[in-house]
Design a protein that fits this description.
Elements: E1 48-49, E2 59-63, E3 68-75, E4 78-83, H1 94-102, E5 108-115, H2 125-131, E6 145-154, E7 157-158, H3 164-174, E8 183-185, H4 193-202, E9 207-212, E10 225-229, E11 232-243, E12 251-260, E13 263-270, H5 276-286, E14 290-291, E15 304-307, E16 312-317, E17 319-320, E18 326-327, E19 330-334
Parallel strand pairs: 1-10, 6-8
Antiparallel strand pairs: 2-9, 3-4, 3-5, 5-6, 6-7, 9-10, 11-12, 11-15, 11-16, 12-13, 14-15, 16-19, 17-18
Length: about 350
């Protein structure tokens, strides 16, 4: 005699309704879903300087923007915009804050760079700083645009352990490519790194950034992100200036210093890159810091005025001389202490 077939799991008794196993009622005091708490602040992932772009499909490339690094925190309670050093600059970027409120998301943290573009569509650090009222200014910048390049928190989820490719996918859904708003996507460029760097330099851009597609978001300068510049640009302390009646602001040349361990070392000067406005603002700042004797040994200087080494200038340069002085220099602007700027350290460099 043939055995009857075994009943299907959901049909143990065809005459009885199918019911789930009774479960304990949900505690209404518990949240519906376990959410990751939004961090108050995240130390940024920083790009490590390299001379040549890396090779391989594991690397994604973007343009290197020349501005202020910002984190935009979006929550039901409001929007906060934090500088790299953790200072709250929400009120200074009203257009970016307003656009953040319009994004279709309840909670998020965007990582990006605030920039101001010139007539050719290039990010211009000097223009950004002028739009904020110069170093130490309190002006609001309505011209600044956030070029968003990472998504660190999204709809209740901490994304830092998620690989870059997935974070970018979600970011592109939140900030579509090709936008013209105050928050725009820093687009990934499909190209060979060396070709892209050459094109960037031909267009007078600062350089490119390479990022490992499979990397989590790790704070610090650990090599997951690399920067390759068309030219060198670093922060140097202003230790004085040479007066000139023929130059903007009466500044013939700034005198610069770098760190070497715990000491300061004179590294030459810069006499180009100023315009009438930036020179006037710089002179006003320096004249508040005048001292009788130079903080470092600068050699004999004619018509020199020495200042306390508190102002950090962003200087573009092409090379170093054999005796440790900067060559082919150009002044780009004063860095803000809120931007957590690094002063160039000569240790092991020249």
């Amino acid at each position: 005699m043939t055995k009857p077939p075994k009943p299907k799991p959901l049909l143990q008794d065809a005459d009885q309704p199918v019911r789930s196993r009774p479960r304990k009622l949900r505690d209404p005091a518990q949240p519906n879903l376990p959410l990751d708490p939004m961090p108050d602040r995240i130390e940024p992932c920083l790009a490590l300087l390299k001379q040549k772009p890396p090779k391989g499909p594991q690397w994604a490339f973007e343009v290197k923007w020349d501005g202020y690094r910002l984190a935009v925190h979006i929550a039901p309670s409001g929007v906060r915009i934090l500088t790299r050093g953790g200072h709250d600059w929400t009120e200074r970027f009203p257009a970016i804050a307003a656009e953040a409120r319009r994004l279709p998301v309840a909670t998020a943290i965007l990582d990006g760079e605030a920039v101001v573009f010139d007539e050719r569509g290039r990010s211009d650090f000097g223009r950004l700083q002028q739009s904020l009222g110069g170093r130490g200014g309190k002006r609001m910048s309505r011209e600044a645009v956030l070029m968003a390049f990472d998504l660190l928190y999204f709809d209740g989820r901490d994304m830092r352990q998620t690989e870059l490719g997935a974070r970018r996918h979600l970011l592109e859904g939140l900030v579509p490519a090709g936008g013209e708003e105050a928050i725009r996507l820093s687009e990934e460029i499909e190209a060979d790194g060396e070709v892209l760097l050459r094109i960037a330099c031909e267009h007078d851009l600062e350089g490119i950034v390479a990022k490992r597609r499979d990397s989590p978001y790790r704070s610090g300068r650990l090599g997951d992100w690399l920067k390759i510049k068309c030219f060198q640009s670093d922060g140097f302390l202003i230790v004085g200036y040479e007066k000139s009646t023929a130059s903007f602001g009466g500044i013939g040349r700034l005198l610069l210093a770098a760190r070497k361990g715990n000491e300061l070392v004179y590294v030459g000067g810069v006499g180009t890159g100023f315009n009438e406005r930036s020179a006037a603002e710089l002179r006003e700042q320096m004249d508040k810091l005048i001292i009788a004797k130079a903080a470092v040994e600068t050699g004999r200087k004619r018509n020199a005025v020495f200042v306390r080494p508190e102002l950090v200038a962003e200087i573009e340069y092409r090379a170093w001389t054999h005796d440790g002085k900067l060559r082919h220099t150009s002044y780009k602007g004063l860095r803000e202490t809120q931007d957590d700027v690094a002063i160039f350290d000569l240790s092991g460099q020249v």
